[in-house]
Structure to design on (293 residues):
């Protein structure tokens, strides 16, 4: 048994013992003869001679409670105190074991089902622990997937850079083309690392302050950049004249999020294709950004 169990046990048992002793004292005082009660005032009436005194009543003597009654009351209070202390200390021991398992890296422990049909704060704490471990498992799974995706994304530009280096060694005449390829792949890896750092800051709750962003102006800049990039594939980028629509957001992150979608549309559109970007108001303070290819 833990320390909390014994604390609850001793406090509850002492409280019950005090109640039993107080009740016994009350009945003991109630059974005393009137002349032996301290609080009884002295009578001013003349006392009768002994030969004329009334016979003694059944309350003239004191009989202590039988020993089995005292022992039974103590045993009952002892069992009651032990039951109450066990009822409180058991879920706390289970929670402590679950926290120890989580500290060792085992996030599969579920404590809510062990609480049974309890409906108190300790049961709520068990369910909160289950939600916490579930959230931690989701975060760790996301980090593992992110590590896998990053390794996959970095492998391609690294392989192309190595191929460009090998080509430069084999064909010195194409050194300039190889250097340009290496530079492009380095820029791609740099952008990827920047996106990872941004994601890390967002997960840590650290981000730039919000500002008033003009979505129309932001999309106009995005379309201008996309048209410059689409020249090599003869892709047409259309944009409707977006109305003024302001939002409070992180302008850099919002620009990057929309730019990723536009770049994907350019990447997977065929030669001579068309990419359209539109910003429309839905009313009630809502807007819609639509990118089609």
């Amino acid at each position: 048994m833990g320390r909390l169990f014994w604390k609850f046990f001793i406090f509850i048992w002492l409280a019950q013992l005090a109640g039993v002793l107080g009740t016994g004292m009350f009945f003991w005082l109630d059974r005393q003869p009137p002349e032996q009660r301290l609080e009884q005032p002295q009578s001013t009436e003349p006392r009768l001679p002994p030969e004329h005194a009334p016979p003694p009543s059944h309350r003239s003597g004191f009989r202590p409670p039988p020993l089995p009654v005292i022992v039974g009351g103590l045993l009952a209070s002892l069992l009651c105190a032990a039951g109450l202390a066990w009822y409180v200390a058991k879920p706390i021991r289970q929670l402590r074991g679950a926290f120890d398992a989580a500290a060792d890296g085992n996030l599969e422990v579920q404590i809510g089902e062990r609480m049974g049909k309890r409906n108190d704060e300790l049961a709520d704490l068990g369910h909160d622990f289950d939600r916490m471990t579930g959230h931690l498992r989701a975060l760790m799974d996301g980090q593992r997937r992110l590590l896998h995706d990053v390794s996959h994304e970095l492998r391609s530009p690294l392989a192309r850079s190595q191929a460009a280096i090998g080509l430069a060694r084999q064909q010195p005449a194409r050194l300039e083309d190889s250097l340009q390829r290496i530079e492009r792949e380095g820029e791609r890896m740099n952008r990827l690392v920047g996106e990872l750092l941004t994601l890390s800051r967002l997960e840590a709750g650290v981000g730039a302050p919000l500002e008033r962003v003009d979505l129309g102006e932001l999309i106009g800049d995005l379309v201008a950049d996309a048209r410059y990039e689409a020249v090599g594939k003869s892709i047409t980028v259309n944009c409707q004249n977006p109305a003024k629509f302001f939002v409070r957001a992180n302008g850099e992150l919002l620009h990057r999020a929309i730019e990723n979608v536009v770049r994907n549309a350019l990447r997977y559109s065929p030669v001579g294709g068309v990419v359209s970007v539109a910003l429309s108001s839905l009313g009630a303070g809502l807007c819609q950004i639509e990118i089609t290819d």
